[in-house]
Structure formats: C-alpha cells, structure tokens
Design brief:
497 residues; Nucleotidyltransferase, domain 5; 37% helix; globular
Length: 497
C-alpha cells in the first residue's frame, strides 16, 4: 500500500511515493530540472502559467512510477503541498483566464494597505490575525481594478494547490488553512471573512467550497488518471500550503513546537494554541493543518529574507576561492562564540517583515584590523542569521508562543554545526533534525486524510530522526553575543527612522 505526495513549488514540482507501512520514500523526482520560469512583466510582478504545473506534475509522476516497485492500483491516497498565496482565476470551462499571480508578486501591497487603513487595524488583526498585506485577496483586488474584463469572466478563484486538485479530481474546493492564505478566514467567527470580501466587492460565489484539510476532497477522474498512469477513483485526501505542510512533514502539530527551514530565505513556523496576533503585523498567522473550531492551532510564521543568500554571498566573496560549505563551516568553528566582537546584520535581501517592511541592508560592525580576519566574518555572518531567527522568535513569544523544540530537515544551513549550535544555545530550544521533505510530508498527510493512519502520531511514527542538538550547558556567551547583535540592530533601525 502506497501514498503519493506532490509539492507544487515555484521552481519545480516534486512527486514522492511513500510506502504506507514503513514510511519509506520508495521513489521521488522533480521537474523541470532547471528552475521553472517566472514572468516579470513589470518590476515587482511575478507570474507563472498554471498549466505548466500540470505538465511538470505529469513528468514527475511518470518518472516516479517508472522507478517505483509499485502497481498504481496500490496507491491509496494523494496529498498536495503547494506554493502559498498565489491566485489562479478560471472560467466556466475551468480554464485559466490569465497567468497565475504567485506568492512573490507585490502588486497587491497598496490594496492590502488601503483595506488595513479603511477597515481599521484592530478589526483586521482581531479577525484575520494579520494585515490584508500582499496576500491572495489583495492580489484579487488588483485584478478587479486593473483587469475588469478578466474579473467579470471569473467562475472560480483558486490557490495553486486548489487548481492542481481540480485538475486531478474535477472538484473545486479549499479549506480553512487555504482561506487564511487569501486572508479571508475570520478566526473570531471561525468562518470565511465576509467583511473583507464585501469591502473588496468580491461575490462569495467565486470562492471554492470549504472542506476539511484531512478528508476526501475528490477522486481522480478517468481523464486525469489516463494522463498520469494512475488509477481512476484514487482519492485526494490532504492539501496544505508549503509552510504548514513543511511543519506537518516534521511532525509539528502542537503548541510549543516549531518547524524551521533555512534555505535562500529562512522560516520559523510555530504553533500557537491561542488566537493572538502581533500589533505591528511583523509575523504572519495562518490556520494550521489541524486547526478546528474546538482546537485552536495557529501557525505563526517569521520569514527572514537574508539567510542562506548571505552565507552563499560570503562563500563567493569572502571565503578562500574554491572551498565548499563544509570547509567554510570549519573556518567559522575556529572562531569563538560572538566572533570576538564582529557583528553582521543579514538584511541585504530586500524589505524584512520582522523590521516592519524596512530595508536596512546588510552591514558589518566591530571589525578591528589588528584582531579580525575572514574567519571572523564567516562566523559572524552565520551568527547574524541565527540572531535574526531569534529576533523573530521573540516576536512570536510575545504573542503567546512557547518555543521548546525546533524541528528541521537536515539541509541547507542546518548542515552547519556552527549554525545549529548557535540556534539551540541562544534560543534554549532543542533542535531535532529529520530525514523528510515536502512531497513525502504531503503523502503522509494523505494517509491521515484517508484514515490509513489514526492520527499524526501514527503517521509519523517512522519519521527518522538524524540528530538532536541540545543547548550548551553554559549559554551565557551566546546570550551575550545576541544582546550585542540586537543593540547594533536597534541602533541601525533608529538611524533609519
């Protein structure tokens, strides 16, 4: 018995086939092999052809089936993870009316800001837990104003995952987690946020039906099954945005648990058991995959733009030519905690939400030409990335989160012992590294939705832990280094006011 998971990213679509009993991934692949194109017709825009996701999914499925020792008839359920906050608009024939406006498109910003002002901060934050910002509803508001002929022809609007599910099943639906990505889930009322729909002038009829995250959301049609080499009637039983799904993949379901990724940008995604928000809207709040009327589970997300991209910049421009990341980590480890007074602020990849959307750039402080060398810069850069995570985690803690454990995949910055030790020892949380990814997580999620697993405990019983990193017995040097970094940041922020 097998489970099939898809991860619909903006750079590729990945498929993974998981043995339900052992939890082992028996085959996986992704397409395209070069990063998928993103169209930028104007500065700040980002669009993709929704049809291309289906083509990549088809190729990934074919490759997985060719590799796997599995009969398609033994695939019992399908799960979907997808790039968040995108907008797909279709006509009555369910054909896209235009290219999808994707997560990193910023044209919705003024529409979100206007709604936040007009409706009032208190009303938005208490009901939506966020500013309408640049989320899917704000992108749809742009479409309504700037392409009215397209808007008038809309039959349904969908998130990328909803669109792929429709291609698989012929059914159009979403869930509370999905609507919270639009910024159209009212956490006070536990229902769609009709007040924001009314404000923007959106008819309720264009939005998909709301179903559960873990349940049957449709079955594979004969035509889709024929295209993919799968069995008609296979149920789609789970769907979630990529960050909630990443948390699910790492078995993060309960208050106090945190999932983290540290690729080009970095994310700390934790679970809050109370409905609360940051008054300055520096972190994002979404309905987590297991949020329900009788069980509050809010995914609180800090996103730092300048994480792995700073480390790769240091590798290209500071580290000795030709060395890899492993050697770079060794150079960093040769310098004591705190980098002997060198401080790096890692904010050189655009406006940072945790800094209230300010752009302060990356900067290096405290260098003494008689004391410091490149190894200090290499270490201080990694410490700066860690400290930016801690800064975001403090905001998360200020709204009621307690961070005891950090779950992460064994990839990107988490491969660095310096990074891991700094994060554990500064935060006081234990880091647990696991062998998993988004597509595998989506497959396990499908197993929960299909009732193959009773709950997440059973679904993730076979999740393989690679390592556990505990805080240092003496945390004082780490806390002192963070205090200096934070004081430097506050000084720079004061100068940017």
């Amino acid at each position: 018995m097998f489970l099939l998971g898809y991860d619909i990213g903006s750079s590729s679509v990945k498929a993974a086939l998981v043995d339900a009993a052992s939890g082992e991934c028996v085959a996986s692949d992704f397409f395209p092999k070069r990063e998928a194109p993103i169209k930028a017709l104007k500065p700040g825009w980002a669009e993709q052809d929704a049809e291309s996701w289906w083509r990549y999914l088809r190729e990934a499925t074919a490759s997985v089936l060719a590799k796997a020792p599995a009969d398609p008839r033994d695939i019992r359920a399908i799960g979907i993870s997808y790039q968040m906050h995108g907008l797909v608009a279709v006509d009555r024939a369910c054909r896209p009316l235009r290219d999808a406006i994707i997560w990193c498109d910023s044209r919705g910003v003024p529409y979100g800001e206007r709604a936040f002002t007009d409706l009032g901060a208190e009303s938005c934050l208490s009901h939506l837990l966020n500013s309408p910002g640049n989320f899917t509803a704000a992108k749809l508001a742009w479409l309504k104003e700037n392409e009215p002929d397209v808007f008038d022809r809309i039959y349904k609007v969908m998130l990328p995952g909803d669109y792929v599910a429709m291609r698989l099943t012929g059914e159009i639906c979403t869930n509370p987690e999905g609507l919270s990505e639009y910024m159209l889930w009212d956490f006070k009322e536990n229902a769609p946020a009709c007040f924001l729909m009314d404000y923007y002038g959106f008819p309720l009829s264009i939005f998909p039906e709301v179903r559960g995250t873990f349940c049957e959301q449709g079955r594979l049609t004969h035509s889709a099954a024929a295209e993919l080499g799968l069995t008609p009637g296979t149920p789609v039983t789970y769907r979630a945005g990529d960050q909630p799904n990443n948390a699910l993949s790492l078995n993060v379901f309960n208050p106090g648990e945190v999932a983290s990724t540290a690729g080009t940008s970095g994310v700390v995604y934790g679970i809050n058991g109370t409905v609360d928000y940051d008054p300055k809207s520096r972190v994002n709040n979404f309905a987590h995959v297991n949020h329900a009327a009788g069980q509050t589970r809010i995914g609180v997300m800090t996103c730092i733009n300048g994480t792995g991209i700073l480390n790769s910049w240091v590798k290209r421009n500071i580290a000795p030519e030709g060395i890899g990341y492993a050697e770079m980590n060794e150079l960093a480890a040769s310098v004591p905690v705190g980098s002997e007074g060198v401080t790096v602020l890692p904010f050189g990849n655009g406006a940072e939400r945790v800094l209230e959307n300010r752009q302060i750039g990356c900067s290096v402080h405290g260098v003494n030409f008689n004391v410091h060398n490149r190894n200090h810069i290499i270490r201080a850069a990694q410490e700066g990335i860690v400290f930016s995570f801690i800064y975001g985690m403090e905001i998360m803690e200020s709204i009621g989160m307690q961070i005891n454990k950090i779950h992460a995949g064994n990839a990107n910055m988490f491969l660095s012992p310096v990074f891991r030790d700094m994060l554990a020892s500064t935060s006081g949380a234990t880091i647990m590294l696991f062998d998993t990814d988004g597509a595998v997580g989506a497959a396990r999620g499908a197993g929960i939705g299909a009732g193959i697993y009773r709950d997440n405990t059973e679904a993730f019983a076979t999740l393989r832990k690679i390592a556990e990193i505990r805080p240092a017995s003496d945390r004082a040097p780490y806390i002192e280094a963070y205090a200096r970094w934070k004081a430097t940041l506050e000084d720079v922020l004061n100068r940017h006011h």
